[in-house]
Every structure is written in C-alpha cells, then in structure tokens.
Amino acid sequence: MTTSAPQPLVDSYLKQLRAKARKLPRRRREELVDQIREHLDDAIPPGADQADVRNALEHLGDPEVIVAAEFDRL
Question: What is the pTM of this model?
Fold first, then answer.
C-alpha cells in the first residue's frame, strides 16, 4: 500500500475481512484477501487522506457481505 497515514484503516478492514472469512477454504480466503488488498492499492492514491481511504472502504462494502457472496459462489 502506498499510503502511510491511513494504513491503520486498511489494516483494520483486512483484519475484519480475514475474521469473517475464516470459514472459507484457506486458499480461497487468502485469494480473497489478496484481491481486496490489490483493489485498495489501486483505488487509494498516494498521499490519500483518511477520508479518501474511508470512501474506498465504503465503496467495497462490509466485509461480512463480501464473504457471504463468496460462500454463495462455493
């Protein structure tokens, strides 16, 4: 991630995502977290402030909803 100050927001989001995804198969859980991390790397510009990061996270949606969609695909 290229941002520095808002990093805790992203870390917290990914931690929540991992926790919600713990019942997914390990490989799929890791892929999902990696995909979301890559998306955030692309979506959050260098030098972004906390508002930019919050907007990107809100656009992704609640981690629980993301994981539920993954379970629907299994």
Answer: 0.86
